[in-house]
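Exercise 3.2. Students should predict the tertiary structure of the chain below and write it as structure tokens, then compare their answer with the key that follows.

Predict this chain's 3D structure.
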Amino acid sequence: MPNSRFPILFITDRAKNYDYSTPPRDMSNSINFPDRVRKAHGERLEEKFNAVWKEFADISDTRQAASLPTRGGIYIQVRSADAFPLKLKSLENLRKGIRLTRVSSIVEEKGGGTVEYTVATVFIPTGEHTYFLQKIKEYLEGDSPSGKPKNQSLINSIEDVKLAVLESFWQSDPASLPRNDQPLWCEIWLRNEIKDPLSSFFSLCDQFSIEFESEIIRFPERIVLLVQANRDQLTNLMESYDYLGEIRLAKQAVSTWIQESNIVQLDWVKDLLRRTTIDRKTKTRVCILDTGINNGHQLLASALKDEDLHSFQEEWGVNDHNKHGTLMAGVALYGDLQACLESTNEIRIGHQLESGKILPPPANKPNNPKLYGLVTSQVISFAEIQAPDVNRVICLATTVDDDNRGIPSSWSGAIDALTSGYYDDKRRLIIVSAGNIRDDSLLKAYPSSNLASGIESPAQAWNALTVGAFTEKTIIHDPTFSSYDAIAPPQGLSPRSKTSIVWNRKKWPQKPDIVMEGGNAGYDKDMDFISDCDDLRILTTSVSPASAQFDTIDSTSAATASAANLAARIQDRYPKAWPETIRGLIVNSADWTPTLIEQFTDGSNSKGTYEDLLRTCGFGVPDAERALYCSENLLTLIAQEAIQPFKRGDSSPKMNEVHFYELPWPETVLAELGSQEVTMRITLSHFVEPSPGEVGWSDRYLYASHGLRFDVNNFQEPLETFQKRISAALRNPGQKEKYPNNSNRWKIGSTARDRGSIHSDRMTASAAEIAACRYISVSPITGWWKTRPHKARFENNTRYSLIVSLETPAVGVDLYTEVASQVSTVITL
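Answer key:
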């Protein structure tokens, strides 16, 4: 890249909004349900429903005879046939109070292979027990206008029905369900459907001698709290309470333990301080949520004031009881501290630090777990109250290994709520580590162990910038480790970095979003021993400067702190950039190293190959120069806009609007380049409001409040045709003309890139072809804002950041100047 640096160009008032409706879909892949023998199947299900009601009535009678409370309805468990789905929409009737409470996919070994089926838990109020019996009667006796049995899709989709039991609500590993002799702390997810579902729940806890925490996390569909209960106590809750959604095991968070370095070079610190200016008036801060930070360290003192040290509980204190927070701080403040020490240049740091202690010291109730979503939210609130008028990057490298498989947890849901502004309309940038492989023995199977190890909670959060690790550290100088070889190759995936390969690809985003330096590990084959030697780690600040100025850190903790440093540099450079934009710029600047491509692709250049790559190392390694600046041959444009995805319809909400852009384009330069290659990259970053709780995340119940998608006109596609391709509302009534999309031009493709809430892709074509691609659309897809109208959020606006880059390897080409002259919002360097 040339040495010249120009500011990134923010374009305003370029979005033109038009009516939007979703184009007709290809129904060749529509959902199928199993064929059934009508009479036999209907009568079998009728018998099963009647048996379930009799069983429920017997249980209710027994409880009443024992003076125990009973529910005002029944929970049933509905199962699909193997390899077929349930018709979930028809299992619910909100007007009658019949609700889905949980839906899950089950995979079982069967016949030498695996089968998958769906299980749904449904609540039916007392008095509505005939609802499904009536559906079955209509199925048996009536025909639809098409001549098929009434309710055929619903009834044919059901294989079995039985009374829901405690296991029906248990979301964690079945083996972890509490025994009667071992009460455990559990997350209780209540259905948030009435004004006060908590009073009766707490009364039941008192009645059954169940210890509970009064703190709660509130989501659109769920309220989450903690109880300590055994199996019988949980069963009593299930049999007594109408608004139970699901139950999960509550787990303590774990943090990385780092071996302390013996390197002590106080003179290096003094030299670095002499050359470093830390802006004390800056409006940019990195808030590190961890074990506390020792701000007595000379390298940190000027950036972290006493009043910016916070703790969830006052009795925990604000000091770093573990050292992990102080290790994070050195990287978050200085970035590559070793490079800073070795340099002779003047250094300017444009951000300050904050510390939020979210982990208790070992002596403070170590066996009493908290809801970490609540803890995280509360500590962030402390920092915001102390310094309300700053641009804050929140850094979180504490994770829980809960085998979440991408399923939202209360913690990741809280992260999504905080980032989206669900509680207070304030958007936040939160950077989260992907989590680490802690079992050294697994590293011997590198990189297969990475692919088999799922990203930890809360890193599955859609809105978080989730950070994995790669490494360039492969050389070991320390003679103590002369028999060791680095496990990962240069620029390969860091040995401990976790991935989302094992997640359900149809439901959950690709994570991590990016990878940054996380160090390596050494392996002595003769001794069959793994070691994290200092030469393969990252230099940072020590928690005990009286004995050592420096220590080392590695894995995704180091990578996350480094990402926070980059985010703070971007925020300092562009103070009015939104959190959505900062996240987008980091992703937009990232690319895969040749080693990562070699490690995790098959060389076919197929779209499926790139989805695997995304789920292993995200969009790659960010380039700070590309994220911060333009140059002659690299042009970056940003639009920060708001769109209203949905509006009120005649009977239910419907799609509202689409945005179209005609970008300021370097037409003259592109025309001169002609057949030379130019790469166009687009990144769309937005935040969703979450609705966690396993209700299926399909049909009416969706995790995300909405979604946004981008597209670009085809090489020979005029604006009017492009607009009609994107929005059916812009077509003539009755028009049946097809509008093909040249999706092969994209490197990743829409199937893989459109997961989650940040989408990025690139195309490389001739300059003449790229010159024609100046029209971009941003359109909505459905979400719970639309499908849950009683939540009254369907007329909300949502913000997004659209980032477009053009780059050419050609020398002496100026893509920047022609466009800069057309754009008024230019930040002077």
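Discussion points: The first strand starts at residue 9 and ends at 11. Confidence is low (pLDDT under 50) at residues 254-263.
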